[in-house]
Fold these 2 entries.
Entry 1:
Amino acid sequence: MTDAMIALTGPDDRAAFPASTFADVLRSEWTKLRSVRSTFWALTVTVVLGIGLGAVISAAAAHGYARSSASGKLSWDPTGVSQAGVAIASLAIVVLGVLCISSEYSSGMIRTSLIAVPKRGRVLAAKALVFAGVTFVVGEVTCFVAFFAGQALISGHAPHAALGDPGVARAVAGGGLYLAALAVLSVAAGALLRHPAAAIASMIAVLLVLPGIAQALPDSWRNPVTEFWPTQAGTQLTSVNHSAHTLQPWPGFGVMCLFTAIVYAIAWTLLDHRDA
Amino acid sequence: MIEARGLVKRYGSTMAVSDLSFSIRPGLVTGFLGPNGAGKTTTMRMILGLDAPTQGSVTVAGRSYRDLPAPMREVGALLDAKALHGGRRARDHLLCLAQSNGIGRRRVDEVLRTVGLEDVARRRAKGFSMGMSQRLGIASALLGDPAVLIFDEPINGLDPDGIVWVRTLMRELAAEGRTVLVSSHLMSEMALTADHLLVIGKGRLIADTSADEFVRSSSQQSVHVRSPQAAELAALCRQVGATVDAGTDPDVIEITGMDSAEAGKLAAAHGIALSELIPVRASLEEAFMELTRDSVEYQAAGATR
């Protein structure tokens, strides 16, 4: 072995290689997301549940409208009814978001990923961004299709909504935004807790269990929880009717985004400092 | 070039690596040798930026790993062949790694051919045997055509053909002027592959030397003698300061502290007939056992001599 040959592959020559960029990591995360089957299934469940369940609930609610009480008729919300499936479908987004990072921990892939991209923040940011982007597109399509299908089933049996009605376009489009924020929150929770089961359980607790418990509390406790609980606040963006003790749509969504940003920041800091 | 200075890693009260300093040079296969639990993997994890050292530092090509602008183009690593998402196809696994460092698709197909996995490129990795997984892991290390390669126990689970292939590959990579660091707990494997050895036990550096030098310096030479007058010769040897071990066979003795020429002369001078006179050099394996005997973490009862 001569010195000249060693120098050829030495550090000086290698320094000429282009640095890896965030765009490279985004492409990599997109490949990761599209190349596992769970992505396809979770997104299929989101679309099918969001549209299908929304249609079933719309049809059932519209048929019951004639027999409902005066107060029931007063609070009739055709947009909310058509979007009811999306709320349940959001659980599929939570599961997929948590899995797309925590499955890297359970399989050991995270070590391979962090050796490839040692600037760890980029891995988390790219994962969150790619998954939020995919969720946003799938979410918007689901919400709009669910809206039109729902209104078609409702019309003739009960008053239906149109996109031009006040707040309706914002509420339907807001569904995709809400799901995208939930996607980021799920990825951050997965990165923070690292165990798929623990992270999914925590997300379900945040989304369903804790708000449910709050309902059993006295008013003085319940009202601030209903108002400021991050995921509850976030759903204000998707509702047309504004009920008591809730934030306005955009401030509500802001609370959810702020909460997501805090969880994300903690996940980022820990990812950067913990041994992988 | 990999350089470690005063590397220390402590997990709670366990000292995994203590005060490790070494530099690994290009153009050679450096064997990283030690019993299980000696701290080989921990050291490699620190080189690759997965674990932060408690103290000290380690650099690759003059930089800390996490500061490398295009890590896969400088360092290729295989730590754990099963550290991948089993549901992903082999080619997609390599593609997502390549993309993260701006490496093109053509290179993915190239490395798949190099490791002989082109026929299973579209199969999901969870169906792979250990040998196929090792090949896939080696393929991912080669993606960036890096100047430094790090392999943790790469022959685990390989069939004999695969073992020969890995050995040849390591030798070729080093011959191209690359830095190659290969860990193993099998001395016999390193004897066939490594030019240089880094031996650790219980997290401490025991030896940093060429493979030949390692055997020369750490193995005791002895002389095996068979003679009808073995007892007589044994007494003479002891008189001149050599050590003699007698076995179960009364005609056979093992002499240490004297080479075969000296033993032969001594016997001739006293008219002792010899039927066998064989210089015995401990194998690399025995030298390694000798050196690390005190530093193995888990020892079977009765294994201590």
Entry 2:
Amino acid sequence: MTDLLRLAAADLALVLVGAVQVWPVARRVGLPLPPRVALCFITGVGVLAVLSTLLGVAGGPTGVLPVLGPVLAAAALAGLIVIARDRRGPPARQTRRPRPAPYAWVGYVVVAAVAAPFVVTAWRLPVSSNDEYMMWALRGRMLAAGHLDPLVFGGAANPLTYQSREYPLGLPALFSWVQRWVGADTAEYGAHVQVPLLGAAALVVAVWTISTMSGWLAGILIAPALFTATDVGRHTGVLFFADLPVAAAALTVILLLLSWLATGGRGWLLLAFGPAVAALYLKTEGLLFVAAACVAAAAAVRVCPATGSRRAHRGPLLLGGAALAAVLPWQVWLASHGVHSRFVGGQRWGSLRVGHLLHGSGLVLRNMATYWPVPYSTYWAILAALSAAALAVLVPAGRRAVVFLGGTLALIVVGLWLQYMLTVLRNPRNPAAAAGYIRSNVTRVELLPAALVWLLTLVAAGTALAAAPRSQAGSLSPPDSVQHRPNDPLNLPPDRVDVVHPAGAPSTPTNRSS
Amino acid sequence: MGQRASAGIRRASLARPVAVVASEAHPVGSDSDNAAGAVQDAVDGPEDGNRAGGGRLGRELAARLLASVALMLVAGCVGAGWWHADRDRAGVMAAAARLPTSDGRVVFVVPRVPEGFIRYVSARVPAGDPVQYVAPGLALCGTARPRYAAWRAWMGQVFWLQYRLAPRPSACGAAVRWRIYLGQVPPGVSAGDRWSPTLAVVPAHRR
């Protein structure tokens, strides 16, 4: 029981750390308490990862004491003050806020009901997978010991023996953090719990976002999305693997970008920064996920002629750039130690033939489809995605969201295909040699795209069904759903709100308050 | 019929969307009490907002039908996926119940690295002392390509020892304070440093 209380304190501290950045912005944009706390947790994990990495690459102590703990304690105290001031202060004016989602609590209950068994299982399981004791948990132990062990992390190790050294420090830092709170003997159990907790946090944000955009039924159906994949029950949802956490952080980024597309409030982009950094620090695939989401959001603004601002697309690109900048210290440290990505180098470009490319490409695509992480035929997922595309054609109201989510999904799939092709091209005459690696990797890495298919379909279908009459759905009109406060720096003026105008009509403010 | 359709659409309304879309915000010439018309506008978009015709109704119905089918499809897939994942999770729990326990906690053991040896090393090697792991054919330091057979035979045990012996750092070269031999113990190692014929921990200055 004491261990559980300590673990709860460790996570609460991370929530308070995240609150420093999240709370004031979330209040302005109208994010309610459950998703706000969830977002604080994910952001707190990102802050922990950044600080641990900065200390490590600077040669400082990577353990919680003597530096990291006090710094985070100060941040948590600041977070507590921010929250307390918020509670004492006058209620924020209703400005550019999403409509309330009165039945979102049903979705939160579903998230809790689905995630709780995974949390209980994770708490009871010891470290037992070689991915844990050769990499994630081992690195966590080494970080807790105080420095970046050169044999485990750096250039002193034989690169053929210690693989995946380029993986970032987010998850090991979380292990180290938990170990300090609950002790070395309980650390692996407490660390396991963080995995389903991060998944649940992202799903709470998903429930609220989808409930407000596409209705309560869609909000409930998205609730278990990250806990429905093939490998989640055995490994990625209950052991110390990075796949579910990185999918959770990236999914949060995607959801916040979705809210930005819907409301135009810059606050959503600010909120997305923490999860974006967390995703980049949790696993290398986070780079692909975040980049895909940011590029797709920018493209959705440009492709769908629905915005009053010609520069709106810069927002998500800036977000992506800032998140990339936050992960630069780790990349620079890796380069200085001669540690490179496993996908870069070793390709035999000279012996490459078109036939090799086609054969390898086909093999990669077949494996990506065959091992798509659903326990039934991939056909059903493809059918769902196609129905979303058809709905986007039929219902303009959801078109931009579908373009964004579909674009993100497509970019991620292409990025993963490219990643596996680079592996195949190391031995282009025998692409089957890479098939084993692809099979073992793809079911875990495709967790996010698998969840994205459901998100895409639910947004499209929910929006189509939610096209309610105006008499009752004043929610669809800007003055009701989004109100402008001229001096609010986090909110764009109404002429930048995503407004669909008749073809050829100039973009004019519809509810300018001045 | 119109009233019934309107009521049906009201009941079917699943959301209070946040998306700000002027096709919905600018209902030019639309009748706010005509639910079907409003849905029609949202379905057709602003370009077609004032156009009448039977095709619009068909398009609207098609959209609603497709959306309903899509929702059911997702519900089925998500439900089946969750059932499968939860069954896997329960299986993992059942498997864990068969593992040994220590102080009420399940403990995973790598059979080829006896717990007794880990306790022996933990008692002998101070927490901050760097350790080198030596196994036949395994090159942990440098860039020499390890033999695959050696890598396969020993790396799991080396990783497990590194994990269990943390915070003792791993090292190569002059920094090494202790060497842990796996599989093959050199002949000169004293009996006091041998834990078994295949496992030993030796102070670096001795060998």
